[in-house]
Each structure stands twice: as C-alpha cells, then as structure tokens.
Fold this sequence. Notes:
Elements: E1 2-7, E2 15-16, E3 32-37, H1 44-51, H2 57-60, E4 88-90, H3 92-98, E5 104-107, H4 117-130, E6 135-139, H5 143-155, E7 158-164, H6 170-178, E8 182-186, H7 191-205, E9 208-209, H8 215-231, E10 239-243, H9 248-262, E11 271-277, H10 282-286, H11 313-322, E12 326-330, H12 332-344, H13 351-366, E13 375-379, H14 387-394, H15 421-429
Parallel strand pairs: 5-13, 6-7, 6-9, 7-8, 10-11, 10-13, 11-12
Antiparallel strand pairs: 1-2, 1-3, 4-5
Helix pairs in contact: 4-5, 4-8, 5-6, 8-9, 9-11, 12-13
Amino acid sequence: MLSELVCFEPTCRARFPIDEVIYNCPKCGALLEVELTGQLPADVKSLWRQRRTCNTPIDQSGVWRYRELLPFGGAENAVTLREGDTPLLDAPRAASYAGLDRIAFKHQGYNPTGSFKDNGMTCGATQAVRLGMRRVACVSTGNTSASMAAYAAAAGLEAIVLIPHGNISYGKLAQALEYGARTLQVEGANFDEILALVRLLAEKLGIYLLNSINPFRIEGQKTIVFEMLDQRDWNPPDWIVLPGGNLGNTSAFGKALRELLAHGLIPRLPRLAVIQAEGAAPFYEYSRGGPFRKVEHPETLATAIKIGDPVSYPKALSEIEATRGVVEKVSEREIADAKAIIGRAGIGCEPASAATLAGIKKLVASGAIRQDADMVAVLTGHVLKDPDYIYHYHTGQLTGPGNAKISAGFQNQPIVVPNDAEAIEKILGS
C-alpha cells in the first residue's frame, strides 16, 4: 500500500513523506501516524492463512505475514527474527478468579526476546535500514532495550540503550548486554526524563530513535491484533484488555481495529480496556476528563508500565473513545495475586502482564464487564523477565513502593527438607 506520515492532531493533519526522519509534526508538535491508502487483494485473508505454511523467513513472521497492511510496499529488506506467531491460551482458572465464564490470553512472551516489543521493533529496525541509519537508540525499563538490541544486531546496526540506573530487571538488562548494545545507566533520572535526553541526543548525533513515539513501531504492533483475529477466524471478541504504560500498544491496537473494519475484514470493533498500576496511572486519571497531568515519580514493581508521562496518551485516548473502551487502575497486591493465578493456570508472565487479569477482576465486580463476555487479555512479557519478583512473592519477601510489604494471597513457599527419604515421605503424605 501507499503510505504517508500524517499529523495526528485533527486541526493540523499535515502530511510528510514516509522517508523523513521525524517523530512529531514539524508544524504543530503533535504525534505522527502512518496513513495507508489503497485496496487490499480480494482474497487477502486466504493469502495470509496460506503464508502460515510457507518456509520463507518473511512468511514465518507473524508480523510480515500481514505486510499488505504495513507501510513498506513489500518485505524484501525486512529485519526479522520470526517474531509473532504467539498463542491464544485458554485459562479456566484465571477466568474463575476474575468472575468470567472464559478468558483467553494472547501471550506475547513467546516472541524471540520474550515480549511484544518484537512486533514493533522488526518494523522500526526495517525502517532504520531503509533510511540508511547506522545507529539506533532507545530509553527503556527493560523490554524495549532487549528487543532493540536484538534487532539492531540482526540488522548490523549499533544499538545504544539508556536506562534508569538501578531501576531495571536484571533479566531484561542481561538481554541488552548479551545482544551487544552499548548500555548507559543514567543516574538520578526516571524513564520520562531519560526519554527527553535521548531525543535530544538522537537529533544532535543523527541516531534513529526506536521508542514507541516512532510511528513504525506502532505499525508493527498492529499485527498483534491482526494475528489474534486471524486465530479466531476474524470473529472479534467483546473485549481486548491490555496493560497501559507508554500506551503504544493501545494506540496500535485501536489503529489495527479501525483499519480492519474499514477494509471490511471484521464486522465490528471490540472494546479496549487499558489497565494501569496505581502508582503510575496518569492515563487513568486523564481518561476521566480534564487536562493530562504526568506522574512526576511513578512507582510500581511492574517496571514495564512504570511510566508517568506516556508519549502516546493522545492517540490512546482517541482509541479508547473510538472503541467505547475503559481505563482502570490496580494495586501492587492485585497485580501480584493475579500474576500468581495466571501461573497456576500453567501460564507464566511478567508482572505488568498480570495487570490485565487484575483489572478484569475489578471491572467484572463493578459490572463494567459482563460475566459471559468474550474476553482476550494480552500478556506482554515472558515469566522469566523478572524472576526475582516471583521468588520474593512466594517467599513472603515482596515489598512495594516505600518498602511496603505485599501480602501474598497465593504464596507457594519452598520447603527445606532433610536428606532423608522417610522424613520427605511424611511431608509428602501429609
């Protein structure tokens, strides 16, 4: 399809070539989005389904398989690690916990670097190569840095990662280091402050920025919805529920749904529900009216959504309104217990992912979501992204912001036993 960069601000809507290195509208400063024009092939659903059986790298990707709805005019130079192809998993135990008849989790932790970021990063890295960039950069609380480092390595680009010093899961930091990224830990700054810093450096040094403000990241993340609906034979659920941090996924999901509806590929729009952690919930407050106010010092153990000034909030609110969606916030205890329940369904996830189930439980209890609703919740990251969190929860050592102890509702304490078969037999027999 043909494509342009278009200002998201309705009163501006200025247009720019797809190969300009810009992240905000040069005329008014608003966010940019990619606008596609043209017609899809009449049999595009069959084409996408046929590609599942192909052995070519591009068709094995759950992103590039849907390239007719991506702004690249093809996929000849795509930077891919076979991202996507993530499962929809039924979880009866989690459904019961939330008060639902049924729930399915779209688990993005099955991606190459273990999070949904890979869906967007394959497109971001591809655009960097198309533009002839040599260096790419991001600020990250973990998953973005891991993903960008991997895709930069695959593309032969130099990766530069800036992170808050001492405020990142080692499971995520280890990935960035392993994939060869030049990693800078910024002292005394949070995510939002470092994003302003890296944007300044990117402009001065000619580095391509790959945070979710990059509209090509959003294009890749659209395919999470494409693939989920393909797996459901294009039957939309009533609700799609996702965690809210920088709100790139919210923007991407809404855009994906609107595009599918416009092309006649789905009969209606599902509703979006965005769940934030209480200590980092500026979008929750904004969705209730009034001006946007950032959280100066966001606090949550769900580090993937520990963002007080999300850049994509204007887009995200538009998508919530377009889908008649809702925004909710949940406590650290609610996230921790929901994560344990997801684990007991045989499905592991990072803490931020579990905000979905915690939020659904609150929304069902309040009557905002019906018990019989057809529900898909997105799990954004792999269980091993933050193993310390799991250990501390189950051993009663998990503490939240301000060192407040989080009481575990579903603790599974390991037991120390003697090296004695009879003693162990007594324990197991009890």
